[in-house]
Amino acid sequence: MICDTVDVQTLGLGDDFEVDYRGGIARQELEEIIANYDVLIVRSRTKVDANLIERAKSLRIIGRPGTGLDNINLNAAAAKGIEVVNSPESLVEAVAEHVLGLMLSSARKLPLADSSTRAGQWEKEKLMGFELSGKTLGIVGLGRIGRRAAEIALAFGMAIQGYDVVEIGQDILQSIRCSMVDLDTLFSSSDFITLHVPLSPETVHLVDARRLSLMKKTAVLINASRGAVIDEAALAAALREGRIAGAALDVFEKEPPSQEILGAPNLVATPHIGGQTLEAQTKAISVVGSKIRKYFG
To answer: Helix crossing, 110-118 with 92-107: angle to 10°?
Structure first.
């Protein structure tokens, strides 16, 4: 087994596996040695494309601690009978909490308040915010993270409405007090909108200039899913022109992001840290380790 940037001990594989830890391995070297391994464990840095998979003559399983599989060519892996496992369940709490943190930061202008106060200013009049209580949260994608964000938002006294391309059971909707609406209605009637969808051809620029034009002028857009779900140029324009109140992004079309989006007003930006908690990262690795053990029986 070969792995990059993963704590080997946390994998919990014991003495049944010979683990070759290659943190920071160069692409050329990985291509040269991959044929020797049955298991490959990667994070987002390593691109497991069709060329690498073709060279992996003995590979049986690829592990990716975390949620995203954007860096793995799933079709090429499937064609060779290579199983791919990840651990999306491990990041639910961390990402959902981060979403609420982004909402609060945007609503109360916390980054601006911090920077201006540190600069010796006392700008109370410029820092008028608004409360989450009584506002409507629109959730695009009611998977594990979207549902958990809804549960937390309920404690703030928010109303919940959702949209998903798959049917969500009534028991789940009742548990989070969520009413389902079509996507355009969600965008036009929500005070906060949070995105929780995978990146696919159908979701690229799901939030485009037209959908942004539907939003209330007082609304805030949150994204902790995948950057390309939003047309960043259209969002930057909407923020510059004051057509929406704000946005809070943990993910971007290109990472690190461009100055076009970072220079937009009323933007809260974080460097893809939704899942960056000690608890989530430990669980992400251990869950992948347990799935690999199960695969080999």
So the answer is: 60
Contact 243, 212 (CB under 8 A): yes
Q: Which residue out of 43, 55, 144, 272 is catalytically annotated?
A: 272
Q: What is the pTM of this model?
A: 0.89
In this structure, the answer to whether residues 15 and 76 fall within a common structural domain is: yes
Would residue 27 show up in a list of annotated catalytic residues for this protein? Answer: no
Going by their DSSP bridges, the two strands 192-195 and 220-223 should be labelled as: parallel
Q: Do 161 and 247 sit in the same domain of this protein?
A: yes
Domain at 51, CATH number = 3.40.50.720
Establish whether 260 is a catalytic residue.
no
Helix locations, 80-225, DSSP H: 92-107, 110-118, 144-155, 170-175, 183-189, 209-214
Question: How high is the pLDDT of residue 65?
Answer: 93
Q: Are residues 135 and 245 in the same domain?
A: yes
Catalytic residue among 32, 255, 260, 279: 255
Instruction: Give 10-residue mean pLDDT values along the chain (297 residues).
Output: 82 88 92 97 93 97 90 97 96 98 98 98 96 98 97 98 98 98 98 96 97 98 97 98 98 96 98 96 94 94
